[in-house]
Amino acid sequence: MKIETICVVGLGYVGLPTAALLARAGYRVHGADVSAAVIDALSSGRCPLAENDVAAIVDQALKSGNLTVGLAPVRADAYIICVPTPVLPDRSADLSMVRAAARACAAVIERGALVILESTSPIGTTRDVVGGELAAHGWDVNADLDICYCPERVFPGATVREILQNDRLVGGLTSRAAARAKALYESFCEGSALTADAEVAEFSKLMENTYRDVNIALANVFARIGEDLGVDVHDVIALANRHPRVNVLRPGPGVGGHCIPVDPWFLINAAPGPSDLLRVARDVNDGQAARLLDRAEAAGLARGDDVAILGAAYRGNLDDPRESPSLAMLHNLNERGYRWRIHDPFVRRLAMETGETVEVRPAIADALEGADAAIVMTDHAEYRTLAPAVFAPMAGKLIIDGHRILSERALVEAGYQVLPIGAAKRA
């Protein structure tokens, strides 16, 4: 069956740019999302994502007429599901959105359709959840439909390049399904599309992000050792990385985003016995915020003091606060009885785990005013050039640098006490 029309379900950080790129390639694409705000924005010609390259392609796709949007899926030759798969408070996978998307597609799907799940999911989700929902509507998922898993390849800040240039892994419930999905991706992407079965593709995606989580945790453990023993871990890392087969990452205040802090739990829950290392890595990375606050208290910060948090986004130069380490820091500050303000040059509001939405200060001086300490939680480029004079509104002289991006020498010469991650307290 030739593919001419495609329905993309979920118009977030993955689905919307994918839909726009498919439209640019000449397909007639309908994007569906349950958020009326997203549909209203796109219907008005506004891209809800702040990334410039994405906004340009979305604008082009909407103006061409090849991309239409609505609140529900429509009949198409192919369906691509790109919905969130978060973890619940007990760390189990929340597959409710995948299930709902598959059910919505089942209401309009026809025999011969290609169905692709891109959402990062536990092993078996494509077969059991997507396939299960479609089978419940009377379809033979091997004979009537072609169902695949193709994990998204997105790095926020370079989304368009990543989708187009990265190799893709297509895991089909059948070889015919994999071959059709391979042809679709190779029709608009520059990278190669490799084929496997669905479970292999699902495991591969989880393995990739878990690998990164474990290696970040290793760097953070090295940083803790350096802090305890009085050795600057950054100097050690630079020397160790001269070895041709060593590449130690930089330590930081934790791990954020929609993938790395979430995906390892899918493997931990699936195989709790052999995954002890993965659980320890998660505990290390999730505990980095508390570690930074412990160091601040050891340096004289007292409970009840005012703290300025610099950075709400999970990564530098983004407006995305999902699973940001700053959320863990704010949780720790609340538990220990601190007052706090938070600044970010891109994020305006931050949703707390309690459901409360807090204001993010747009002016750094407002966050620093009267603060007893400042903690850098995001590696925004703006923070790398902060001069000592910027910190003048503070009442105290303590700065915790969770990314080691500040000019430590200039700040120390100006009378501030700076505690960079991975470095011992200066005498």
List keywords for this structure.
427 residues; alpha/beta; eight-stranded mixed beta sheet; 15 strands; 40% helix; 15% strand
Short overview:
The chain has 427 residues and is an alpha/beta fold. The protein contains 16 helices and 15 strands. It is elongated and about 70 Å long.
Topology:
Layout lengths: L4 E5 L5 H10 L3 E5 L3 H8 L8 H13 L2 E4 L7 E4 L14 H11 L7 E4 L7 H12 L9 E4 L9 H7 L2 E5 L2 H14 L4 E5 H32 L3 H8 L22 H8 L5 H11 L1 H11 L7 E5 L14 H11 L3 E5 L5 E3 L5 E3 L4 H5 L4 E4 L4 H4 L13 E4 L6 H6 L3 E4 L7
Kindly name the structural category: alpha/beta
Strand content: 5-15%
Helix content range of the residues, please? 40-55%
Low-confidence stretches: none
Mean pLDDT: 96
Shape: elongated
**What is the total tally of β strands?**
15
Count of alpha and pi helical runs:
16
Q: Measured on Cα atoms, how large is the radius of gyration? A: 23 Å
Describe, in plain words, how this protein is organized in 3D.
The protein is an alpha/beta fold. It is 40% helix and 15% strand. The chain has helices at residues 15-24, 36-43, 52-64, 96-106, 125-136, 159-165, 175-188, 198-229, 233-240, 263-270, 276-286, 288-298, 325-335, 364-368, 381-384, 408-413; strands at 5-9, 28-32, 67-70, 78-81, 114-117, 146-149, 168-172, 193-197, 306-310, 339-343, 349-351, 357-359, 373-376, 398-401, 417-420. The strands form three sheets. An eight-stranded mixed beta sheet has the order 3-2-1-4-5-6-7-8, sandwiched between helices. α4 runs parallel beside α5 and α10 (263-270) runs antiparallel to α11. The termini are far apart.
